[in-house]
Amino acid sequence: MRRPSLVLPLVLVACSSSPSVPDAAPADRALAERAADRAAAELRRDLAPDQPRPPARWETVPGASLSLIDHTVTALANGDVLIVGGATDDGTGTGVYHAQKKAYRFLADQGTLVDAGELKTARSRHRAVLLADGRVAVLGGEDDTDYLGSVEIYDPAKPAAAAWGEAAPMPSTLVGFNAIRLAGGEVLVTGGTFNGIDSLTTVLLFKPDGTWKLPLGTLLESRRHHASVLLANGRVIVSGGMTGAEKMGTGTYRSSMEIYDPTSGAFTPAKSMATPRAGHNMLLLADGRVLIVGGNCGFGCTVAGHLIFDPSSDTLTPISHPGGTGVVEVALLVPGLGAVLFAEKSFLFASSGGEAWAALPPMAAPRYKLRAALVKDGSVLVAGGLLEGAAKVTHATLVERLYP
Amino acid sequence: MSRPACLLCLCLAACSSTTATPDARPADRAASDERGADRSSLDRSVERARDRSPGEPRPPAHWKTIAGANLSLEGHTITLLQNGEVLIAGGCKDTGGSPSYLRKSYRYLPASDTLVDAGELVAPRCEHAAVRLADGRVLVFAGQRESSGYLLDTELFDPAQPAASAWSAGPPLPSARTGASALLLADGQLLVTGGDSNGSDALDAILVLAPGASSWKIPLAPLKEKRRHHVSTLLPGGKVLLSGGSRGPIGNRVFLKNLETYDPKSGTSALLAAPMSRPRSFHSATLLDDGRVLIVGGYCEGCTESLDDLYDPKTDTLAPLAHPGSYPWSHVAAKLLDGRVLITAHDKTSGMVVAFNASSTPPGWDVLPALPHPRERADGVTLGDGSVLIVGGVAQTYPAVVYASSVERFFP
Fold it and tell me: For an engineered disulfide with B166, which of B52, B119, B223, B386 has Cβ 3.0 to 4.6 Å away?
């Protein structure tokens, strides 16, 4: 696959206006604070006018070397970061990968990467979600031959050798699904595919007791490689995605969005995006709005830029974007920086109505297919991915930290 | 006679073992739900209290295979007795393409977790109905014992008698039948609706057996619709909901998607304006704690819809529901003590088991541990402690019939 030669993380300096959601009830506002994490609160402080921001910088985690794609990188409740599974190139450079079992933990206080035990089943393209009790649920994905429905749970309080256990499997094997934790502690799993072609309208809830539940509602359209985000009011917005074969341009890409109501378990339609997109990302901003970034829409189709969705007015507003579009691997709200995107395309600086994109300095090992999460001290840990501009598939083995 | 000539044909036409299942189950439910003062209710409250005792961690939901129990059958009945034991009666078994009709009965003793002999029926019987009467005896009726001809004779099981003398002849039906639905009304009368006498058409007849009576009464007003393989469900106000079924010749059935409420006080019935989301027969219709009725699965020829329905008697309306997993035309529906309804799959591979949970937020289907030995056409019943017993059914149909002979008990 052709890759652009320059990939840099970029940041949206957003949310300089009032952080409160105009018509939100006090309870909703409280929820917004939680949902946007402590990062949001710090972001508001840090974006105060007249306060010069020191330049961001990258540092390499000493002694750490990982050869992974399609892994997960998850912030733990104590500020450490958990890296799970993924796939490693077989060394021939032909793009044949083998799923991995190992897990690693980045210790925030020591600044080092250590062993975090092994999955029972090697897997990549899985999802990992931090549960309300501090454990991490690892869901579905695939090993070298099959899609997986099994669920493994990481307990950060246990030593590495005893940290992993199993929970009830998903009712179906799944890849390409979304999994996000709701305000009530359940994990909402939407869409995906069990055969690599047909996407599903399936909606599942992983309950805190480790069992599964199917709410009465289903997605209004089948989707995989869609994006979901928890809104300030406890609802979830789901956007885009696709169904059908991904190669040969035969897939059907979605432009619709829908909203999940955790009380009724049903979905209702929301605004539609101007163009379809899959493999994009969504991020809840500190003011309750949602950034919709990147994605692709199949052969001969170009995703028309980034959007901001305002749930309070049900409006979608195009915003300027830094040049290219494409898969956005990671979107994080980073204290002191704003919305940080790690995309597979290069970008340009742009400005729009007080919000602006800014380039971040390049990594030591510029890469795509990376994963990233926030560390306790507000830095961003980046692990895995493939080197940009390499003649053949080459893992970006350095683990790097972005200091805002 | 236009009925299929052999049991296997019946199976293929999807009218074999579950013939008895929908017939028997609502009656069992009525018997255990409506007779508030009987011993099983008492046992339940004791169990509930024990479950809630503090400091005792509750084990996660699980299945347990009953050691030493081995029953290869279908078309049997399973009935909760007043003392909390379970009667398993009759049925049939495919023997190389032709059915053999079974005469044996068994008692499952929950306390010792064993299956014991409960004597032999007066004559073999399959695809029948079984209802626990107000006096604790079990009436077994309808069904068949050879490839042609439905049954006129009935029999009674008396749990107070030793196995050798437990079974005796009961009051004969006014006409032979199969595929009728039966339940016990709050006043102890047994209500039998519809069915089929000879395969040429379904019946609109109603039969009533009063407590202690030796003959059946036939109320003058018939049902509004001829129905066989329908389900009757006792509603909180005393009316009975009749759902679906089929009418017409057995070889050219019309599957029904309408509902009818029968009022035992006035002896009249009324068709509901709103239809179900699909026609269904051999389905289940289970009363929820909030008064609504969960209508699940069932068979209809050529149907493509795979929805369940929720009937609300307050508004006389139906709401369709998506069913999780593969669609269960045959299944076990068992009400759990916490109000959920356990539904097994019509499934020889996954054994997926779900529970409809109307009172949770959001309402939905809880995914329960899978049935250890997946099967179609099983039968089951909720025991006094809230566990669910699953008996019989088919684990493989081609190239030869293989029965799921294990007996499984689910602890929620």
Answer: B119
In Å, how far is B362's CA from the nearest CA of chain A? 5
Give the Cα separation of B20 and B375 in Å (integer). 17
Q: How many Cβ contacts (< 8 angstroms) between chains A and B?
A: 49
Cis peptide before A215 (omega within 30 of 0): no
Helix axes A37-46, A26-35, angle to 10 degrees: 90
Contacts of A267 in chain B (CB under 8 A): none
How many C-beta atoms surround the C-beta of residue A132 within 10 A? 14
Looking up tokens 């139906």, which residue turns up?
B318
B352 vs A contacts (CB less than 8 Å): 171
Instruction: Tell me how far apart the alpha carbons of residues B396 and B405 are, in angstroms, rounded to a whole number.
Output: 11
Is B161 an interface residue toward A (CB < 8 Å)? Answer: no
- The CA-CA-CA angle for residues A298, A200, A122, to 5°, reads 85
Asked if B367 and A217 come within 8 Å (Cβ–Cβ), the reply is no
* ipTM value for the complex: 0.81
Pairing of strands A257-261, A266-269: antiparallel
Please answer whether residues B375 and B354 qualify as being in contact, where contact means their C-beta atoms are separated by less than 8 angstroms: no
Say which of A171, A212, A218 has its CB closest to residue B322: A218
Q: Structure tokens of B241?
A: 């909901």
A217 touches chain B (CB under 8 A): yes
Cross-chain Cβ contact B367/A262 below 8 Å: no
Judged by DSSP in three states, B234 sits in: strand
Q: What are the b/e assignments for B208-236, b being 16+ CB within 10 Å? A: bbeeeeeebeebeeebbbbbbbbbbbbbe
* Chain A contact for B365 (CB, 8 A cutoff): yes
* CATH number of the structural domain A10-403: 2.120.10.80
pTM: 0.84
Complete domains list, chain B, with CATH: 7-53+67-411 (2.120.10.80)
Spell out the domain ranges in chain A. Answer: 10-403
**Nearest CB to B352: which of A171, A211, A263?**
A171
Q: Which of A321-325, B87-91, B235-239, B365-369 has the lowest mean pLDDT?
A: A321-325
Contacts of A211 in chain B (CB under 8 A): 61, 366-368
Q: What is the Cα–Cα distance from A288 to A197, expressed in whole angstroms?
A: 35
pLDDT recorded at residue A113: 98
Best probe of the B interface among A213, A267, A268, by most B CBs < 10 A, is A213
